[in-house]
Amino acid sequence: MGHAEAFAMGDVVARYLRQQGYDVLHPIGWDSFGLPAENAAIKRNAHPSEWTYANIDTQAASFKRYAISADWSRRIHTSDPEYYRWTQWLFKRFYERGLAYRKNSPVNWCPKDQTVLANEQVVNGACERCGTPVTKKSLNQWYFKITDYADRLLDDMDELRGHWPERVLAMQKNWIGRSEGAHVNFVIEADGGKPAKDVTVFTTRPDTLYGATFFVVAADAPLAVELVTEEHAAALDAYREQVKALTEIERQSTEREKTGVFTGRYAINPLNGEKLPVWAADYVLADYGTGAIMAVPAHDQRDLDFARTFDLPVRAVLDTGEEDPAVSGTATSGRAP
CB 95: neighbour CB atoms within 10 A? Predict the structure, then answer.
């Protein structure tokens, strides 16, 4: 039903431009490849191709009943070999240029359907299709190095200003997610038979380094397991199981109470030699940056919320003229408006 609404809006544009005297290419197609189609077929004891193409025919008939002005001679399906041969060809070109690579990354996983789920497919912690509690699973996946083009993508957005809505441009800018800052190397002290380790963090605010009062690693990152002492290992294992049930949207929410566990280790601030307790927490994501951060609670709200939850020090190092964050509960960024 949702497809009819979406295609109708595109049809409005096609019809309008035809009446303006333009020649309009208006093909139609179905994104019909993937595990959801296979799972639906398995549930009904049918072959995936039979189930998929039967549903496509049903929807095509629906489109024709309300007379969408698509060119039906140009109908395509992503599950047709003559279509996906070109996606495979395109992938090979990316791979040959060094723009496709593999790495492990946590994903939402439905153990019953044996499939990866988008955040939107996780409803109240469960799979939207079968209701099974969703967990996190580390899978080796293919990625495209879109970051190689971040600067070009951002710069070219200037050509769209005045033509695209500002809110759409803002969404695109946030999606590209370019951050400018510095990499800072911390040394994690040797402890409990575990050797010292260098850990690099990326920060957009190197000017607040003196305000760091603790250090946080993503709870689901291998680094957390590597750093934790034997005394705190059981608590970390239990906490990691809790984190598996959360989506990235939930973990990034500013409204959730901050949670975490102490690893038993300390990081050395490279500027002043101060020992910073190393915590594992869910508000830091394993695949963002290096999966570790220096926490500056006076000047970052999420760090401040965490510090207040666990009674950690809050030290202001920027004079903004605002009330002390340790008292107000509101971090001060010190950035120009």
Answer: 13
What is the C-alpha separation between 240 and 221, in angstroms, rounded?
Answer: 9
The structure's pTM equals 0.70
Contact predicate 263/217, CB 8 Å: yes
pLDDT in tens, 81-110: 999 999 999 999 999 999 999 988 888 899
- In whole angstroms, what is the distance from residue 173 CA to residue 157 CA? 8
Amino acid occupying residue 118: A
Q: For residues 130 and 42, is the Cβ–Cβ distance under 8 A? A: no
In the numeric block, which tokens belong to residue 299?
């000047």
Start-end of H helices in the chain = 2-19, 35-43, 48-65, 81-96, 150-156, 166-176, 222-227, 230-244, 248-252, 301-309, 325-328
Q: Whats the size of the chain, residue-wise?
A: 337
CA-to-CA separations, 38 to 84, 143, 243, 287, 301, in angstroms, rounded: 17, 23, 29, 29, 44
